[in-house]
Write a structure and sequence with these properties.
TIM Barrel; 56% helix; alpha/beta; globular; binds SN-glycerol-3-phosphate; eight-stranded parallel beta barrel; 8 strands; single chain
């Protein structure tokens, strides 16, 4: 399973890359705007932090197929490395996806809310489809169920496109999409910390430390081995 950072905050990205097994970064126009930065410089900085081999997904701001294609070609040049253009599902978006497929540019179809949007995007040539879990839950739909059915559809129809679930607000949502076989999730940097947090873990580590220090004081194993 791939864990991806849904952020353009370079400080947060740097920290996640240092500590977590991260496959890349996804952004969208809202996430980029939040940084109030020079766009090209921001993309270049994100790429230099994550290196050429991790994925970088950047969303188009155009809504006509030909313009989306041009944007994707230009973005690919400045983003370098393993680049994906994110394209919201629409008729123009699907047209752009199939043109880009022919040009060998990788695509993530985004703003997916239904199973059939995902199917059409995949058949148009998308490499990933990104269903929005929390936004589905917020309208009393069931984000996990939508992901489960997309995963099942792709399996039943031998479609190689992968599901990249997005829009998470809590650990439960991430765990449940993992349990239904979702191969990739994109989550905000705060959620990475919540995924590993448990008070009993902290309690256990404190107890190990206290027991050790009763016998060895503040010496660590390396100190003892060096004696
Ligand atoms: O990038 C798309 C998705 O991650 C949006 O998440 O939190 O704005 O619903 P959110």
């Amino acid at each position: 399973m791939q864990y991806i950072i849904d952020s353009a905050d370079t400080k947060a990205i740097r920290r996640c890359i240092e500590f977590f097994p991260v496959a890349g970064v996804t952004t969208n126009p809202t996430i980029i705007s939040r940084e109030k930065a020079d766009f090209k410089a921001l993309i270049a900085e994100i790429r230099s932090i994550i290196g050429p081999d991790r994925m970088l997904h950047i969303q188009t701001t155009s809504d006509v197929a030909e313009d989306i294609v041009k944007e994707a070609e230009e973005l690919k040049k400045i983003a370098g490395g393993d680049f994906y253009i994110k394209i919201p599902v629409s008729a123009e978006g699907l047209k752009a996806i199939s043109i880009l497929k022919g040009k060998g540019i990788k695509v993530t179809a985004t703003a997916i809310f239904t199973q059939q949007q995902a199917m059409l995007a995949a058949l148009a040539g998308a490499d990933y489809v990104a269903p929005y879990i929390n936004r589905l839950d917020n309208i009393v739909s069931d984000g996990v169920h939508v992901v489960e059915e997309i995963v099942e559809l792709f399996k039943k129809h031998s479609i190689s496109c992968k599901v990249l679930a997005a829009s998470f607000k809590n650990v439960e949502q991430v765990h449940k999409v993992a349990m239904v076989g979702c191969p990739a999730v994109t989550i905000n940097p705060e959620l990475f910390d919540q995924l590993i947090y448990h008070p009993l873990t902290l309690y256990a580590v404190d107890a190990f430390t206290a027991d050790w220090e009763m016998v060895y004081g503040d010496k660590k194993i390396l100190d003892l081995l060096g004696e």
